[in-house]
Amino acid sequence: MDLGVLARQHRLAITLLTRGWSRFDDLVRETGLPRRSVEELLAELGEDVERSGSALRLRPDSAERWADHVGCPATPPPDLEARIAEHLADVPPPLPALDHVQATADTVLRRALWLDEHYDLGRVKIVFVGDHDLTSLAVHELRADADLAVVDLDDRVLAHIDRRSEGTIRTVHADLRFGLPRAVSGTADIVFSDPPYTPEGMALFASRAVECLSEPVRGRVLLAYGYSRRHPTLGHQTQKALLNLGLAFEAIVPGFNRYHGAQAIGSTADLYVCQPTPRARRKTKNPQAIYTHGPSSVEAGKTTESREALAAFTALAGEGGRTVTVAGPDWTKPATAEQGTAVALDLTGDPGPWLCRALLAVNAERVAALVPNAHPDLADAASQTALIELVAPKYKLRLLRSTPDNKHAVVVADRVETVSAASQVWTRAHARLGNVWPDAPAGLADLRLIDLPRHRIVEVLRLLTANRSISD
């Protein structure tokens, strides 16, 4: 029986038929299922349904078997909230530039219980689009059999989830402004997200959520969203943006989410349960400014770096008479420069993860990247060493702090000519690992290096260094 996302209503129908005689009209009214869905359910139950005039019931000897078909919500362990609180106790600190505001442990627990009550978590697949609140870990604690994946920009969060779940939750890295990784595209029945609360951010995350669904009309997109009741126009703008994507609001549960912070919206947000229509679509234009704080905020808009800074780092890229191609931070597709051409990357908006992935994505004799002087990979000697070692199979780095001014730094990467097992994977970062690495572990073979969380990229490098056998 394929219940899709209607498990709760089907459970209720089975329960009613098990308890005794019910009229068809009562089943429709009590469950909220459309007439056609009730007819399909009864056809599925077949000869196990007894009929007496207009009344129906399940044969007593078959009731238990059908109850197993629709699944039942898990009985939460008594220490579930304590386990969730333990996961949250050492979650990486919120990044204001990514609009992180921590949900309370009670909220995260409530999310897990609500999902389990309404959907058959033993059969559906859930993708969490951004998960600093660790809702995925709460669901995993409640339902160990749940099929879960998390896609996030913050490598720290992905590492935390991977460690806490012991690798049972699939973690995938992405900046949704550039696209959705293949590893989660078209894979989900349910998508949950607590996006940036701007119309631009909500629309982008919701659009990516629709892309995650295997059958959009049969799936659901669950979004947390809050706005100040003093500014209903903002709420209207965001709701309109969601409607323009082709999403119907199946339910809006007020005050469902509570936060430590976000006092401008009363430290609370509603839960939006959205059903994509057949005309649901992805956004054709992906805004860069989607957050409420920091350099990528809507208020900040698009910043333009000084001509002096851009000219200076472009000159570094062109040292030795090379032709220079200027590019942005999008690493979703491989880029190869011709012989004698250097690539200058403007990464001045990098919140941290762009630099290493841009270096993996671009194959050139030389790459020069202009980044903030306070970039996390340049913050101290340990961070610099980690970056140098990570890209060593492909590039030798020069890290030029306070260049060309005290706001910026330039990372110059010169190609390494030595061929190794790792270099052949590092120069084909967009290929399935199983295609370029015959000995890739089963959990990695179907993934692309470019989509892995950073700690998993480090793991791949370690394994490749230990086992040098690889095909050309």
TrEMBL record:
Alphabetical GO biological process terms: methylation
Domain of life: Bacteria
Membrane keyword on record: no
SUPFAM superfamilies membership: S-adenosyl-L-methionine-dependent methyltransferases (SSF53335)
GO molecular function: methyltransferase activity; nucleic acid binding
Keyword Glycosyltransferase: no
Keywords, in A-Z order: Methyltransferase, Transferase
Protein name listed in UniProt: Putative methyltransferase
Lineage: Bacteria, Bacillati, Actinomycetota, Actinomycetes, Pseudonocardiales
